[in-house]
Amino acid sequence: MGKENSAEKALNLIRGRLCDPTSVFRPLSGSSDSNFSKLKFIVSTSITEGCNNSILLLGPRGSGKAAVLDLVVGDLMEEYPDSVTLIRLNGLLHSEDNCAFKEIARQLCMEHHLLFSKMASFDENSQFIIAMLRECGLAHKTIIFVLDEFDMFAQASDLLLYSLLDAMQSVTSQAVVVGISSRLDADQLLEKRVRSRFSHRKILFLPPSREEIDSLLEHLLSLPADSSFPSGYVSQFNEKIKNITSDTRFKDMLKTFLNANSTVNSLLKFIFRAVSSMNLESGLLSLENFKTALSSMQRQPKLEAVRDCSILELYVLVCMRRLEVKEQSSYNFISVMKEYKTIHDSFQTSDYYAQNVCLRAFEHLREREVICYAENRGQSQAVEYRPMKLLISASELHQGMRSHACCPAILLKLLDH
Amino acid sequence: MTREESSKVTRRSTRFSSSVTSDNPEPNPSHPPTVADLTFGEESITLDSLLSSFPGRRSQILDLIRLIGPLDSPALPVILYGDASTGKTSVVLQVFTHLNRPFVYSSCRTCCTPRLLFESILNQLLLHSKCSSNGYASAKRCDKPSDFVNLLKEALSSVVETLNSTKLERKLMGKMVYLIVDHVDLIKEWDKGEMILQFLFSLSSVLKMPQLGIILISGLPPDVYYSNMGYTDPLPVYFPEYSEEELRQIFLKNQVNKKLYSAFLDVALRPFCRVTRRVEELSTSLSSLFRQYCEPLDDLSISPNEDLKRRLYSNLRPHITSCLNEVFRVSGRPHDGDTRGERRQKASYSSEKGDELEILDFHMSTSAKYLLIAAFLASRNPATLDASMFDSTGGMDNRKRKRKASEKSMEKKEMAEQEAVMKGPGSFPLERLLAIFQCIASVGDSSLGEEEDEEGEEEATGYDKESNNMMSDILLQVSSLCDANFMIKSGSCPLEGSIRYRSMVSEDLSLKVARSLSFPLSKYLYRR
Q1: What ipTM score was computed for the predicted complex, to two decimals?
Q2: What residues of chain A, 35 to 94, have a C-beta less than 8 Å from chain B?
Q3: What family is it from (chain B) (predicted)?
Q4: Global pTM value
């Protein structure tokens, strides 16, 4: 019971670490030339010297841009407790100007303990924001604007960006605008007048190197040697982790995984899955956990869809494939039924069903998005007459049928000829 | 169990067959809802009973439980995907009964706009229920994702506070709340659905609250959600279709006489599995077939021996093929206690397959039937042949001179056939429909007149009365045929200005209708 309790606690601890991005990125940000220190330098100089600044953080999704920014902001809040205000906006939510200004005004009010009225109009909000910028500038307080999904702000409309950047230049303000985007060309999306006011500082977030990953793994998976865990258990656990990470099979697994997706976030998901399947009785991780996690992360949805088909649905797919091979550029349900009939006549299969049954099988395939309508505009036609197309390739169909539980041999033969 | 809790439970438990007896829709105002109502609150079930009630889902259930994790353990978002009726929603709800954690369930099928979805989630978190006292209004009005995020943060923090401070002497509920969103694939059809999907998938990183666990249920695999905005994928759990063995276990679960049913499944399950493996479709066809299987037996509780099994099978065999072709059709005739209906059914099943075509199982007026046939003919025949098909006496004349078919013309014929198949039924203006209708209705009159002389049954006198009123309300009939989807309005030609129609009935249905009127349809149909 005690063993299970400590295993559960260990599991909770590791899962907590994996779900919290800041704790993941802190060890990665230790060195002096990392993105963390660069960003911190830029923002802290603009706080101490009282100047305006703008910067873009770019990198693929899940490479830790927002996490590093959170770390920087957290540190700065500690160092300069009263002179930093943080405003967060997200492109998914606030890409409309009304929403964005309302949200900025709301957050400013919350920070400075003012009453926020939901009925304030757009003009009132924008005047309020500019006034606040001026006041904070005069009082030597810096406002940090964090714009997540920056490319959505750039594409939607430039009013927000323009007014922010313009205010920063004209009014005596101290503001830093940090844009975060997963599109590497986010600054090319800006309009000319906004781009001219934007300083083209960019920090790229690249995938971590092998050494960084190894140190990250060790940091994430080792249990701390404090009093909440029985000491023997901690050393046993950490020993097991060392064994696993130095195993060549594990290294190969990691390499294949990172070849497909090299961001830190996907690595975290992989480890999360492996850790969740930890055997709670023994309380130790094993290589099997990582193997099952890898196989469940590498899914092939179209193959699974074909494997899930019933035999009649496989017949429909094979008929469609044969029509494609015969270079019929477009076909619909009626032509597929004709092909089905010719197959039945020439091979005397036992699976010949009525048209309404086949139509229903057709609908099932369409719901599963294995086939779809070839064009969207033919709404005025009956379902049987609309042209269709296959959404899976021939090799996927082959593979799926071969791994199908009870595919009749005649179908495989028909597919090849 | 408070009444408020039970009304919440009935709302959520429509998916599984637990016997919640209370059916009181109005919450009693003297029992205010508490946070404990976010859990199921009933007797929690053990893991073994959970696993045994879902045959074939053992690995998925264990996977899900492991991903949700022990009590108070932070979790990454999870997506369960699989085909319809593979048990995703019921498994999730039963897992939460077993784990007894507070959760909020919302389905995108019932909440078909973003506003409904957001407000439903907020209502459940704020423990607000719509009743007549507050005018069936939600607690807060919310239709934009930005408002939703703010309100959700407030609601969650208040719920978590209550969870932290309550000293529960009964079962531990933990400090996390789980959000379950069902039928996520339907969001794709919504207005601005892509944005909402992207928002939902990145909800956990936007909110930054580790006390919320997110579980999404989708009918489509995660690869359909890839968009060019990048994609933060939740952890996938796959629910495959059931194999034959698992289907057998599922169907045997609630049967009274397991031996008899398993003997039935031995012969019936395999052919049906070749057509479809979905549980809901199989259960309707298998239940009707089982009734037929048990017909010769007087005592339904015996367990059959080999001899009996063989006899029952030979009795059933001719019905299996006909039933296979009716797999997706739900019979319109009532089954329980109507012996007359059963006898008619027996007669129809034992007769030839061709006879079945004659039975038109819905009623239409005579003029509507003629209109249907006229629309069918107008769609299938090219307009230029109308004059020769329907000459002034109402007779037909489509003898074509036989010419020796050369190879080129055969090829051309094949291409033309293919094109015709691809194009489908043609469209026709209203005037042409009415012209053909008048022609064939007069044919019908004359032929029916002969019938009346010969037979003089009650049906003929009924027709006689109707034939005088057939020409009225034709336009009304046309519009009701359009509503019933037998005809649709296709695009109108901008030069002509009249609306064109297109017939949507299949040849089988029009043959049935023609046969019920004794109309020689095949003589009027143009065959290339």
Answers
A1: 0.88
A2: 60-62, 66, 90, 92-94
A3: Belongs to the ORC5 family.
A4: 0.81
